[in-house]
Write a structure and sequence with these properties.
about 160 residues; alpha/beta; Cobalt-precorrin-4 Transmethylase, domain 1; 5-stranded parallel β-sheet; 6 helices
Length: about 160
């Protein structure tokens, strides 16, 4: 049986709803795949997020080399999804990204892990590409989580 690997985006979420979703899924490690782990959303920048996760018994690992490079982010924002995917797949072929993928795979094998990025919908986010790559190499079953809507805050 394949080990579960989750993904989650925090777009439109409040920290409480995000943590609730992780708790329900029994996540013990969040793997942050943002290139830059800062956010205008309260509680989602690296330091604050690490503390909130730790208070809930969840470890944090930031793998910035799995972040979407700026041209990929721009293509996605402009709705050029084929370009976004092409750019990100090329990024994954780089040595630093391959090393980070191996680290993510090892960590996800040892923990109930969840890949974190911003976008609410996994199909529009590079975390789905990362998850698919990890599943292909280590036979993970992918489960996309969504923060509790009942606890979502207004967008910032």
């Amino acid at each position: 049986m394949a080990k579960k690997l989750c993904t989650i985006g925090y777009e439109g979420a409040a920290l409480d709803g995000f943590l609730s979703a992780l708790g329900r899924a029994r996540i013990s490690l969040v793997i942050d795949v943002r290139a830059v782990a800062v956010s205008r959303r309260k509680g989602f920048s690296k330091t604050a997020l690490t503390a909130a996760l730790a208070a809930n018994g969840i470890d944090y690992l930031h793998l910035r080399d799995l972040g979407d490079p700026k041209p990929g982010r721009e293509a996605a924002r402009e709705g050029r999804m084929a370009d976004f995917r092409r750019i990100y797949r090329a990024h994954l072929s780089k040595v630093a990204a391959r090393v980070a993928l191996a680290e993510a795979s090892e960590a996800a094998t040892q923990h109930a892990a969840c890949l974190l990025c911003y976008e609410a919908e996994p199909n529009g986010c590079h975390r789905s590409i990362v998850a698919a790559e990890l599943a292909r190499n280590a036979a993970f079953a992918i489960n996309h989580l969504h923060p509790d809507a009942s606890q979502a805050g207004a967008s910032i």
